[in-house]
Design brief:
375 residues; four-stranded mixed β-sheet; 14 helices; single chain; 3 domains
Length: 375
């Protein structure tokens, strides 16, 4: 079952998890010691959680006596009186849907614009790059070289289309560049980015989504670096860093790749992040506390499962003076009116008592009360 309150709970859990990922991503010490495995897992499961705002019968209810009751009252306010009867929650849902449609179309337009931009590339042959591909025995790879490309990047889900700038570089550096982009393809980083891009289209009103989208790009770059240098000696690591510096020097100030679904070799205009990547790559400790990583990942999975067992709902205590006059609501003295606006209104002793939100434990509490459909 999905209710408004289970959705609010899912959003709260998602936001907390994303803030944790963003904070730990900034900690070079954490990434050096524990790598990115737990953070990537937390990011994926958090996104899955917000897409599954489920409410079960065994869920433990956390009562909110102030915030949620106030929000509930505000959402039930009728707007546009005399013109059309709509509750504020209906208006907000319409705005949400319209905004999602707009962001989706805007994203599609940017993808189409970038597609047309790539069609205009002045392509050049790069025999050196093809020799590297054959030497490394890479499969499902296509090389695109052009003076219009400033930053190496890769696109494609089933075939790695590696875009390279027409910059002369030693073969050993070119190998690092091509292998980095191929590692993005093998890790399916583009698919992860596209997944979060879809989340942004749906939850465009949540600022945490935009913050984390930037953090996700950086997290995937660090993960790719870790995979690249995993079996490298110090000499190979220095060659890898040299390739990063070469591309950085080739980028003009303010240059950036706007392809939302592309995995780039470096991210322009982010010297602090590049410094972090260098520190992680140069870290000499090769042995990682694997047991701690396994425990941390298992803990993340357990917390993900446990998140379905908690829901935040509005609650309140009646004023002391009203307790003496308390009464029982039953089918003998009450009924529920379903209005033409699909709003459930509870009437007790012939008088309006309160509105009830469908698909909530509150609604289920009135099971057995007759429902009258307004005509």
């Amino acid at each position: 079952m999905i209710s408004g309150f289970s959705f609010i709970t899912a959003v709260i859990i998602f936001n907390i998890a994303m803030l944790i990922v963003a904070l730990l991503r900034r900690s070079t010490r954490y990434l050096v010691r524990y790598s990115t495995l737990t953070l990537v897992l937390l990011a994926v499961l958090s996104a899955l959680r917000i897409l599954l705002p489920l409410d079960f019968s065994f869920t433990f209810v956390i009562n909110s006596f102030n915030a949620l009751p106030a929000i509930k009252r505000i959402l039930m306010i009728e707007v546009l009186p005399g013109v059309i009867t709509l509750k504020l929650q209906t208006v907000l849902l319409l705005i949400w849907g319209g905004g999602s449609a707009f962001v989706f179309m805007q994203t599609g337009y940017l993808f189409f614009k970038n597609y047309l931009q790539r069609k205009k590339y002045r392509l050049v042959k790069n025999e050196q790059a093809w020799q590297v591909v054959q030497k490394l025995q890479l499969k499902h790879v296509e090389i695109v070289a052009s003076p219009d490309i400033m930053i190496p990047y890769v696109t494609g889900l089933f075939r790695a289309k590696i875009h390279l700038p027409s910059v002369e570089m030693p073969s050993y550096i070119l190998e690092q560049v091509i292998m980095h982009e191929y590692q993005h393809f093998v890790s399916r980083d583009i698919l992860i980015k596209a997944f979060y891009l879809g989340i942004r289209c749906v939850f465009w009103w949540n600022p945490i989504v935009y913050i984390f989208q930037r953090e996700l790009d950086r997290l995937l770059e660090i993960r790719c670096d870790a995979a690249m240098v995993k079996h490298m000696d110090e000499r190979d690591k220095l060659a890898y860093l040299e390739s990063l510096l070469l591309i950085m020097n080739h980028i003009e100030p303010g240059e950036a790749v706007t392809l939302a679904n592309a995995s780039t070799f470096i991210q322009a205009g982010q010297p602090g992040f590049m410094e972090q990547r260098f520190l992680i790559i140069l870290h000499k400790e090769k042995k990682k506390p694997a047991l701690i990583q396994v425990v941390a990942s298992a803990l993340v999975i357990l917390l993900f499962i446990a998140s379905f067992m908690v829901i935040i709902q509005p609650a309140g205590n009646p004023p002391d003076e009203d307790i003496e006059g308390a009464f029982t609501i039953s089918s003998e003295n009450a009924y529920i009116l379903l209005t033409t606006d699909n709003v459930y209104k509870l009437y007790v002793n012939g008088e309006f008592f309160t509105d009830i939100i469908e698909s909530t434990p509150e609604f289920e509490a009135f099971e057995g009360i007759p429902i009258i459909i307004e005509e």
